[in-house]
Design brief:
The protein is an alpha+beta fold. The protein has 7 helices and 18 strands. Strands 1, 2, 3, 4, 5, 6, 7, 8 and 18 form a 9-stranded mixed β-sheet that branches. The structure holds pyridoxal-5'-phosphate.
C-alpha cells in the first residue's frame, strides 16, 4: 500500500523553548490515518495535516471503549540523524491488544513504515536538546455509528506526534510510591496485558488519590489475593535484592513493556541475575527490614528508568537506598538512553534509523 502525503499549507510555529516542552502539550503538523471497513480491510493509508477527526455521536469507541494504543519515541542523535527504538515490538504489541479487543490486525511492518514516513515528514519537530524526544502515539478506535455491543466493522488507525521534554532535566530523581490497597487495575482474563483506554480509566481514581497524598504513582497488587506485585501506573517495576533482580512475571494482568524487555536483556548483559517471577509485597518489606533490598525502579518509554526512593504499604514505610538513585538504576538508565540517543554503540541492534 502506498501512503499518500498531503502537506499542510499552514505549518504551525514550533515550540522554541525546549526546556519547557513537558509531555503531550504540543502536536506536530501532520498525522497518519488509515481506515478499516469490513469487506475492504485496512485501506487508504495517508498522511494529512493534523486536525480534528469527525465522529458520529454514536461512534462505538465513545460508548464501549473499543480502542487500543501504543507509545514510542523518535530520538535525535548527536550526529543529527533521527532514530526509533524497537518499533517492531510496539507494533507486535499493538496486534496483541488488537486481538484481545476484536480489532482487525494491522500489518506490523507496514505500521513501522507509516511511523517512519510520518516522522520523516515532521522531522523538524524532533527536538534537539539533551533528553528531549518526539513521542509517537499510534492508536486505533471503532467508529461504527451503532449503539450496540459488538465488535466494530469500521475503525480508524491514527498516528500523532508530540515533541516532549527531558523527563529528568536535573538528572534521575527518585519518586515516592504507595501500594494500592483499595483499587485494582486488572485481573487475569481481563485486559491488563493490553494498552487499551479502559485500563487507564480504571486507574485514574487511585492515581488521583495518590497525588493528593503526595505520591507520584501507585504500585498495583494482583486483583485476587492482593498480595503479589504487578506494576506501577504506566511502568513495569524491578526490585534489586542482594543476589537477584526480580520483576513480576507476565501472567496476563500486566503490560509487557518494551523497556522492561530491554532492561532484562541489558541487565543480564551487564552480568546481573534477573528473574521474572511472582513477587509478594511481604517479601519486599521483609527484605527491606533485613537490609537485602538494594534498589527499586520503574521502567517505561516516557521516563525510561524511574528510581523509587520511598515505598508505603499501609502504615509501613520503607526508604530505599536512602532515597537516592542506586548504582544499578543509574547504569541501566545510562546504557539504555545511551543507545536511544545514539551516544553509545547499539550492539543489540535495537535502533532503526529514519533516513
Ligand atoms: C506503556 C506501559 C508500560 C511500559 O511499557 P513500555 O513499552 O516500556 O513503554 C507499563 N505498564 C503500563 C500499564 C503501560 O501502559
Amino acid at each position: 500500500m502506498e501512503i499518500k502525503i498531503t502537506h499542510t499549507t499552514t505549518p504551525k510555529a514550533k515550540p522554541t523553548d525546549e526546556d519547557n516542552l513537558s509531555f503531550g502539550k504540543y502536536y506536530t503538523d501532520h498525522m497518519f490515518l488509515m481506515n478499516y471497513d469490513e469487506g475492504q480491510g485496512w485501506h487508504d493509508p495517508r498522511i494529512v495535516p493534523y486536525g480534528p477527526i469527525p465522529l458520529d455521536p454514536a461512534a462505538m469507541c465513545l460508548h464501549y471503549g473499543q480502542e487500543v494504543f501504543e507509545g514510542l519515541k523518535a530520538y535525535r542523535r548527536a550526529d543529527g540523524k533521527i532514530q526509533l527504538f524497537r518499533p517492531d515490538k510496539n507494533m507486535a504489541r499493538l496486534n496483541v491488544s488488537n486481538d484481545r479487543l476484536c480489532i482487525p490486525k494491522i500489518d506490523e511492518a507496514f505500521a513501522v513504515e507509516a511511523v517512519k514516513k510520518l516522522v520523516e515528514v515532521d522531522k523538524d519537530w524532533v527536538p534537539h536538546k539533551d533528553g528531549t524526544s518526539l513521542y509517537i502515539r499510534p492508536f486505533i478506535f471503532a467508529v461504527d455509528a451503532h449503539v450496540g455491543v459488538h465488535p466494530a466493522h469500521h475503525l480508524i488507525f491514527c498516528i500523532i506526534l508530540s515533541p516532549v521534554g527531558a523527563y529528568y532535566p536535573e538528572g534521575l530523581a527518585p519518586v515516592k510510591i504507595y501500594v494500592e490497597q483499595n483499587y485494582v487495575r486488572a485481573v487475569r482474563g481481563g485486559m491488563g496485558f493490553t494498552k487499551t483506554a479502559g485500563n487507564y480509566a480504571a486507574s485514574l481514581k487511585a492515581q488521583d488519590e495518590a497525588e493528593k497524598q503526595g505520591y507520584t504513582q501507585v504500585l498495583w497488587l494482583d486483583g485476587v489475593e492482593r498480595k503479589y506485585i504487578e506494576e506501577v501506573g504506566t511502568m513495569n517495576v524491578f526490585f534489586a535484592f542482594e543476589n537477584e533482580i526480580v520483576t513480576p512475571a507476565l501472567q496476563g494482568s500486566i503490560l509487557s513493556g518494551i523497556t522492561r524487555m530491554s532492561s532484562i536483556e541489558m541487565l543480564r548483559d551487564m552480568g546481573y541475575t534477573v528473574n521474572e517471577r511472582k513477587l509478594g509485597i511481604e517479601e519486599v518489606f521483609e527484605a527491606a527490614a533485613k537490609g537485602t533490598l538494594k534498589e527499586v525502579f520503574g521502567t517505561g518509554t516516557a521516563a525510561v528508568i524511574s528510581p523509587v526512593g520511598q515505598l508505603k504499604w499501609g502504615d509501613k514505610v520503607i526508604e530505599i537506598n536512602n532515597g537516592e538513585i542506586g548504582e544499578i538504576s543509574q547504569k541501566l538508565y545510562d546504557n539504555l538512553t545511551g543507545i536511544q540517543w545514539g551516544k553509545i554503540p547499539d550492539k543489540f541492534n535495537w535502533t532503526v534509523a529514519i533516513d
